[in-house]
Amino acid sequence: MQDLVGPALGTLALVAVGGYLLGSIPFGVILTRAAGAGDVRQIGSGNIGATNVLRTGRKDLAIATLLLDAGKGAAALLLARYLFPGVPAMAAVAGGAAFLGHLFPVWLGFKGGKGVATFFGLMLAAAWPLGLLAGATWLLVAALFRISSLAALVSSAAAPLYALLPLAALGLPTPAPVLVLAAFTAALIWVRHHQNITRLLKGTEPRIGAGKA
To answer: Where are the domains of the chain?
Structure first.
C-alpha cells in the first residue's frame, strides 16, 4: 500500500504545482506593460484583473485579460483531465491550484487578483452547464444593479447551489470534486472581496461604467 501512496502523492503534488504556476501568470500586468499602458497595479484599485485593466481606457486589453485569466484556469483543469482520465479529483486539484496561483502569484509577491474570471473559466471547464448558469447569474445581477462585485459575489455563491440542485434535477449530477472546487473558489472570492462587501453595505461601491472613487 505504501508503494502506491508515495507515487500518488507525488503525482498530486506535481499536478498542484503545475496548476499553480499556470494560474500565477499575471496576464493583466503583462498585457498593460507590453502595450505601454503602464503598470495596472498603480491604477484604480491596483488589482491585476480585467475590471481594473479596463480603467486604463483600453477595452481590448481588458477583454484579452478576461479571456486569458479565464483560459488559464480552464487549461489547467482540462490538461489534468486529459492526463488523468477518470480521476476527476486530479482535474479539481489542478483547477483549484490555478485559482490560488491567480490570487497569490509568486511573481508578484503573492498579491494577485480576485479570481472572478478564473472562476468562470474553471466552472465552464469543470461542468459547462454549471459555468453557463453561473455566468447567466452574473449577467442578470450586473444588468439589474450595475455593480460588478455584487454580480461576482452572487454568481459565485450560487454556483455550488446550482451544482447541488438544478443540475441534479436535470439529470446532470455534478461529480463531488467539482462541487468541492465550486465551493472552494466561491469562498475565496468572498474573502478577496471583503473590501467590496464593506462598500456594498455602506452603499459606496462604484457601479459599472463609473470611475473608482
So the answer is: 2-202
